[in-house]
């Protein structure tokens, strides 16, 4: 039977939660088309991750485990993925819409002459829903090529639950000629933070140009609520926060239980990254700020007064 193949996103021996959401998207496509749902893990020493994935409703997990695949290089990942597609006869291939998948999956599509839809928000049979114009419009697209490739926006799909039974784990044939590579993995500079990962956090406190670079109230609030910090592109471009904290069309997509935005106007490109949040709180001095149109709770106030007051009140309530 033809299959829908979902490629795992993992780093440092830890599976990204987004993978389970991509599996749910894959399952919907598989059920509509009468296909099997399968997984693919690429990396080095990924046996335990394969066991985790096998328990998430997949029939088979293909494991491409090789020292040459220790670090994610688009060139090697694309080659291995293309080889596995040819070997398995997968007809749909997808992954969560992560930086890594955005890097290597378009290469796979080009190598195998496949059509591709990115950032899929929903599935209706073989029709995929995806955002255009920074999410202002949702397009319904179908892919006409025999092989169809997609990335799924993780915040739009519930994570695939764990099951008692496990799928089969099979080794994939890996042939990577490292000598022929045109790119070399040099290293990863990662910002270490005690705070939760922005894309995984249940609570996100974001700041914009209105902070004037003073993020201390936002940091205090984030630490009190165990939240991740995010920022608008204006705040990132000003150098007030590191790039990987940008929320929006050209940053991260977040959908926490609670998003609090302070000193943020609510430009469409920022809304594209957070409007799926379950509860949105906006603090802005300007009553006309567009963010109030998407906010569940809007506070017309100076953030430098409102946040410290909130922190004091919260401490009183919590004792
Ligand atoms: C192709 C493209 C892609 C983009 N991608 C992104 C993206 O991914 N993410 C993103 O965020 N933007 C993105 N942008 C930029 C976006 O258009 C906006 O410029 C940006 O989001 C504005 O950031 P801001 O809300 O911090 O700043 P502003 O729009 O300047 O808003 C600042 C707000 O702070 C309020 N304020 C000021 N002082 C206070 C105070 N003391 N207390 C409370 N409120 C106060 C003001 O009333 C104002 O509403 C993109 C733009 C383009 C063209």
Q: What brief labels describe this structure?
A:
319 residues, alpha/beta, Rossmann fold, 2 domains, 7-stranded parallel beta sheet, 8 helices, 17 strands, 25% strand, elongated, binds flavin-adenine dinucleotide
Please, could you describe this protein's structure?
There is one protein chain. By secondary structure, this protein is α/β, with parallel strands linked by helices. It folds into 2 domains: 3-180, Rossmann fold; 203-318, Rossmann fold (3-Layer(aba) Sandwich). The chain has 8 helices and 17 strands. It has helices at residues 18-33, 47-54, 74-88, 99-111, 216-225, 233-237, 268-271, 303-318, and strands at residues 3-7, 10-11, 14-15, 36-43, 60-65, 92-96, 115-120, 122-124, 127-132, 137-141, 148-152, 168-171, 203-207, 228-231, 258-262, 279-284, 297-300. The strands form 4 sheets. A 7-stranded parallel β-sheet has the order 7-11-6-1-4-5-12, sandwiched between helices. Strands 14-13-15-16-17 form a 5-stranded parallel β-sheet. A 3-stranded antiparallel β-sheet has the order 8-9-10. Helix 5 (216-225) runs parallel beside helix 8 (303-318). It is elongated and about 60 Å long. The protein binds flavin-adenine dinucleotide. Flavin-adenine dinucleotide binds at residues 208-210, 232-235, 246-251, 263-265, 267, 269-270, 273, 283-286, 289, 302-304.
């Amino acid at each position: 039977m033809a299959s829908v193949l979902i490629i795992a996103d993992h780093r440092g021996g830890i599976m990204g939660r987004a993978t389970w959401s991509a599996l749910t998207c894959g399952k919907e496509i598989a059920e509509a088309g009468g296909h099997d749902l399968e997984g693919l893990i690429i990396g080095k020493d990924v046996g335990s991750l394969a066991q985790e994935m096998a328990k998430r409703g997949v029939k088979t997990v293909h494991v491409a485990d090789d020292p040459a695949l220790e670090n994610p290089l688009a060139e090697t990942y694309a080659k291995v993925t293309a080889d596995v597609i040819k070997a398995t006869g997968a007809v749909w291939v997808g992954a969560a819409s992560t930086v890594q998948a955005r890097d290597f999956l378009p290469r796979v599509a080009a190598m195998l002459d496949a059509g591709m839809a990115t950032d899929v928000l929903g599935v209706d049979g073989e029709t995929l829903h995806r955002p255009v114009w920074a999410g202002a419009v949702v397009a319904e697209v179908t892919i006409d090529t025999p092989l169809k490739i997609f990335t799924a926006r993780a915040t739009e799909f519930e994570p695939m639950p764990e099951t008692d039974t496990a799928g089969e784990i099979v080794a994939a044939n890996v042939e990577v000629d490292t000598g022929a590579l045109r790119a070399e993995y040099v290293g990863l500079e990662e910002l270490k933070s005690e705070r939760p990962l922005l894309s995984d956090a249940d609570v996100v406190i974001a700041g914009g140009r209105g902070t004037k670079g003073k993020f201390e109230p936002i940091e205090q609030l984030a630490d009190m609520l165990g939240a991740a910090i995010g920022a608008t592109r204006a705040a990132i471009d000003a150098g007030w926060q590191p790039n990987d904290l940008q929320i929006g069309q050209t940053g991260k997509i977040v959908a926490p239980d609670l998003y609090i935005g302070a000193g943020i106007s609510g430009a469409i490109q920022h809304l594209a990254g957070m409007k799926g949040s379950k509860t949105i709180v906006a603090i802005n001095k300007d009553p006309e700020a567009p963010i109030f149109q998407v906010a569940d709770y809007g506070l017309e106030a100076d953030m430098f007064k409102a946040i410290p007051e909130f922190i004091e009140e919260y401490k009183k309530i919590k004792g």
